[in-house]
Amino acid sequence: MFPNLPGASHMHSFFGATVTNANTTVEDLVNSPTSCNPATDKSSYWVPTLYVNNQPVEPTGTTFYYLGEGVRDDVIARTQPLPFGLRIVAGNAKATGPGDNTISRWSCLHAGDAGSGHDFITCPAGTMLESYLDFPQCWNGRDLDSPDHKSHMAYPVNGDCPSTHPVPVPKLRQVLRYPVNGPTAGFRLASGGGFTMHGDFFNAWPVAEMERRVNDCIRPIIKCGADGHP
Fold first, then answer.
1. CA–CA distance, 172 with 201 (Å, rounded to integer)
2. Measuring CA to CA, which residue among 207, 172, 173, 169 is closest to residue 79?
């Protein structure tokens, strides 16, 4: 968000490539160690840090899914690989209330029908607070980034990508599980209330590996594991 200005943003929690900073290029990511499984994923992912009573809490479970869903089957069949070097921001860091953010949601892991919402929810004892965020899956076919880090991407409309963003790509779904539950009075994100949850993504998957996974898993609508095989 603030290239070459370290410290200009609020605190974030990072996953994937371990070298990510204010000056990172995609070449830096490719040559970086990674916390991802599989280790072929050198991409960088980051989210605003969660604080409970002003103490940072890191997620104990972090999963990033690459999905072929949310559009018609014929659109899935023409899904293209995420372009190398693509950057995306999903969610609304400047949201002033739950109504400003309809993309991210909070729920409780292993809590049955405890429900979900766009702001923090109270999770029963023995469960964990869980965050879901879906990234846009329609690309304009030209730009790897845009000034607001969002305009080059769009969400589907009526099962298809809009004419302004005609290229369907895999949907990235971010799922975070935090080891907290109970009343949320002391909860906040570095960016504000729970409704400000957002995610940043910088794609550094090897081109051939991303293409293989799209061809073998997403286009034919086959569920694959983390290794990219059925």
1. 9
2. 169
Which stretches of 114-153 are DSSP H helices?
none
Section 60-84 average pLDDT: 97
**Residue 42 banded pLDDT, cuts 50, 70, 90:** very high
Full-model pTM = 0.93
Give Cα separations from 135 to 1, 63, 112 (angstroms): 16, 14, 25
> Which pLDDT score is estimated for 102?
82
* 29 three-state secondary structure: helix
Residue 142 exposure: Cα atoms within 13 Å on the Cβ side:
6
Cβ atoms of 123 and 111 closer than 8 Å: yes
Token reading at 53: 């009573």
Peptide bond preceding 38 in cis form (omega within 30 of 0): yes
pLDDT recorded at residue 111: 81
206 close to 198: Cβ distance less than 8 angstroms: no
